[in-house]
Design brief:
alpha+beta; 4-stranded antiparallel β-sheet; 3-stranded mixed β-sheet; 37% helix; elongated
C-alpha cells in the first residue's frame, strides 16, 4: 500500500457530470433536435446555439451558462417535449397563436375545456385564454390547473377571476 500510495494522483477538484455535451441550434419554432426528438427552449433562444447536457434520464439546456430547460429524455423517434413556460412570452406577444399552438393543445383537460368555451363564446376569447396561461408566471402550474378546474365547476371563465381564486388559496 505504501508503494501504491506514492503513485496515486490527487482527486481532481469539481464534480463529474455523467453526461454527453452537444451544441444544438434553436430553430424558429423554439425547438432543439437531439436524436430525432425535439425539445423546447425559451423563445429568447431562437436562432442561438445552446449547450445540451444529455444524461441517461434527462436533457438539460444551457444558454450562456444559464440553465434554461430541463426535459425528460425520450426514446424513439419523432417525439416532441414542450414546456408551456418556454412559450409564454411569444403567446403574450401574439395571443392569436393560442388557437393553434402545439404547446396549448397538449395541456391537460381543464385547459382544453376552458379554451373551447372561450373560443366558442367570443371571437376574441383567445386573448382571455392567454391571460389565463400567463398566470403560470405568478403561480405554480399545479395550482393554476386546480384553479382552472375549480373555476370551470362554478362557471367562471375570466382570467382575473381565476387569479382571485389562486390568491384566495394563498391566503
Amino acid at each position: 500500500w505504501a508503494q501504491e500510495r506514492k503513485a496515486l494522483k490527487a482527486v481532481p477538484l469539481g464534480t463529474f457530470k455523467p453526461c454527453v455535451v452537444h451544441f444544438l441550434p434553436v430553430n424558429k419554432l423554439s425547438l432543439v433536435t437531439y436524436e430525432r426528438n425535439r425539445y423546447s427552449a425559451p423563445t429568447r433562444c431562437i436562432g442561438e446555439v445552446v449547450r445540451a447536457e444529455v444524461y441517461a434520464d434527462r436533457l438539460e439546456l444551457y444558454y450562456r451558462e444559464e440553465q434554461v430547460a430541463v426535459h425528460r429524455r425520450v426514446t424513439g423517434r419523432g417525439h416532441t417535449e414542450l414546456q408551456l413556460e418556454h412559450f409564454l412570452a411569444a403567446l403574450a406577444r401574439k395571443p392569436y397563436a393560442v388557437t393553434h399552438a402545439a404547446v396549448v393543445r397538449q395541456l391537460p383537460e381543464p385547459y382544453q375545456t376552458l379554451r373551447r368555451h372561450l373560443l366558442e363564446s367570443d371571437p376574441s376569447g383567445y386573448r382571455e385564454m392567454v391571460r389565463v396561461l400567463l398566470l403560470h408566471r405568478e403561480f405554480a402550474p399545479e395550482a393554476v390547473r386546480e384553479a382552472v378546474q375549480e373555476a370551470l365547476a362554478i362557471g367562471i371563465y375570466q382570467a382575473e377571476d381565476i387569479r382571485q381564486l389562486l390568491l384566495n388559496r394563498c391566503d
